[in-house]
Each structure stands twice: as C-alpha cells, then as structure tokens.
Amino acid sequence: MKKSFEKLDKLRHGSIREDITDLKQKIEEHEQIHTISINELKAQNEQMRQSIKRNKELQNKIAKKQESISKLKADLAARDLVLKESFKVENLHIIDAKKDYYEFNFADKFQFKLKKHNDNKTYEYILKSQSEELPNYFCGNYIFDYSNLSKFFKKFDSMSA
C-alpha cells in the first residue's frame, strides 16, 4: 500500500508540474496577445491624435479663409454698390465682373448680366439662361436706374425662400 501511495503521489506531482507548465505557457501567450493588443491600441490612438490635429489645422485654415473672404467682400462692397447689394442676396453668385458689366448665377436656376450703360446711371438686365420657370420680372431684358439697385436685388428674396 505504501508503494501504491508513493506511486499516486508521484503521479500527482507529475500532473501538477504539467499543469503548472501548461498554465505558464497560457499566461505567456495571453501576455503576448495583451502586449500586441496594447500596441495596436496605442497605434490607433496615435493615428486618431494625428487625425484630430489635422482636422484642427484644417478648421483653422477654413476660419482664416472665411475671415479673408469676409474682409474682401467688405472691401469690395465699400467700393462698388452693385457688389454691395448682390452680397446681401443668398444664393446669388458672381460669375464675372468687369468695368462695364456683372454676370451672376442665382441658385443654379438662371444666369443674368447687368450691363452698365455709358451714362453710368442705368443698368441693363439681360437674362442669359434659365433652368426653370421664372417670375415675369426676371424674364427678358430691361433697363433700370442706378438708384433702384437695392430694389432690384430685393426681388431675389422671394426666390430664395
């Protein structure tokens, strides 16, 4: 019986050693996987930090460009009444501006030209193209007085809505 007990005791010690070896190996594998996961997360965090940094830089650039555009618009508006009035209209975009005419696009619905006459007191409205039915006051060509520029551009408010 003593021999059986010693035999069982050796088996138990051997089994425990194998279990310890297995557990050590599993712990090492888990530590390696954990290290790999941590490194991947650190790399992702760094990429996200870089992305956030780039986004902030882009936001700053956009803010500077918007400020520059606002200053330019204010400068142009101070020098030119037609541009000043046109800047007040939402969706009205300047395509071209020369000494004697201005060309506009309104919300991609139509394009028109304002041509300054030689007397510098009247403008001719010339419809260039349209993509949909327009109110009568935007159809055809007509001449209006320089003093009515504000009235002319206010007509666009009904089209903006």
UniProtKB/TrEMBL annotation:
Coiled-coil region(s): 13-75
Source superkingdom: Eukaryota
Keywords: Coiled coil
Name of this chain's protein: Kinetochore protein SPC25
Species: Trichomonas vaginalis (strain ATCC PRA-98 / G3)
Taxonomic classification: Eukaryota, Metamonada, Parabasalia, Trichomonadida, Trichomonadidae
